[in-house]
């Protein structure tokens, strides 16, 4: 059963000058974990804001089950937990106060609110930061409180915008484990926006790659990796190297795709049969003495993401 259906959704700003979403169409099954990856400004947050009813599409429809939410966003109130990138109007409240207020807005009784506040404050160790308002907390502490607020009343669907951004490694692990536990034990549908491709690859069941407002590819992690399954990845770091020099070595060939990460760090993608030729070109034209690090591997989801950002994939 599809819990969400997004049909040909378009959204623009500045009188149409900025196209944030272009003809986006996909559906989400109940109980799946789907994530949207893409560079800053790709349109990910604009998309999820429409899915939670904070923005209305300029064109197209969004349905939650059989209810059209474009004109009826309140249908989501009791089913949805949403974690935005910023805490917003709750900034003057402490963590416990923000959880308590949200419980009331969701219609919980006084007793249920009391239980919910204690459970979340204890589970995520928030009592240690409860003397300060949210706008005085660190970015990571704010993200953790926002995550807890999204969990109130065990929503059927969670939409999380950058849930682990700014968290330290230990807390990130706690958040990811909670996400997977909710999905496994309660069949909670999870929609994630994230930049952390490596962590997301271990959690996501399906991935949508967004760039320039459009979904460029969507499928399981395996399906997306299959798009570059015949490729080999050369990860190169140099002691000193001009970016243009390396790019010029391969510029006349469609066989090699060179992706500069910075002035001395490059990735080269090519089909497996051309790997020896690539290495020969590098050694003959640059010399081994200039290599600081050299690694050969098969591409992963992060490489699909990198190619999307730099040149796009098919």
Describe the structure.
- The protein is α/β, with parallel strands linked by helices.
- The protein folds into 2 domains: 2-225, P-loop containing nucleotide triphosphate hydrolases (Rossmann fold, 3-Layer(aba) Sandwich), CATH 3.40.50; 230-298, VC0802-like.
- Helices cover 33% and strands 29% of the residues.
- Strands 6-7-8-3-9-10 form a 6-stranded mixed sheet, with helices on both faces.
- Helix 2 (95-105) packs antiparallel against helix 3 (110-123).
- The mean pLDDT is 90.
- Belongs to the ABC transporter superfamily.
- Keywords: ATP-binding, Nucleotide-binding, Transport.
- This is ABC transporter ATP-binding protein.
- Residues 4-237 form the ABC transporter domain.
- GO terms for molecular function: ATP binding; ATP hydrolysis activity.
N/C terminus separation: 29 Å
What is the β-strand count?
A: 14
The whole-number mean of residue pLDDT values reads 90
The helix content, as a percent range, equals 25-40%
Radius of gyration: 22 Å
Secondary-structure content class: alpha/beta
CATH architecture of the largest domain: 3-Layer(aba) Sandwich
Number of domains: 2
**How much of the residues is beta strand, in percent?**
25-35%
Order of H and E elements: EEEHEEEHHHEHEHEEHEHEEHEH
List the topology elements:
Elements: E1 2-13, E2 18-29, E3 33-37, H1 44-51, E4 59-64, E5 67-68, E6 80-83, H2 95-105, H3 110-123, H4 139-150, E7 157-161, H5 169-186, E8 189-193, H6 197-203, E9 206-211, E10 214-219, H7 221-226, E11 231-238, H8 243-250, E12 257-262, E13 265-271, H9 275-285, E14 291-297, H10 301-310
Parallel strand pairs: 3-8, 3-9, 6-7, 7-8
Antiparallel strand pairs: 1-2, 1-4, 4-5, 9-10, 11-13, 11-14, 12-13
Helix pairs in contact: 2-3
Family: Belongs to the ABC transporter superfamily.
Protein name: ABC transporter ATP-binding protein
Organism: Proteinivorax tanatarense
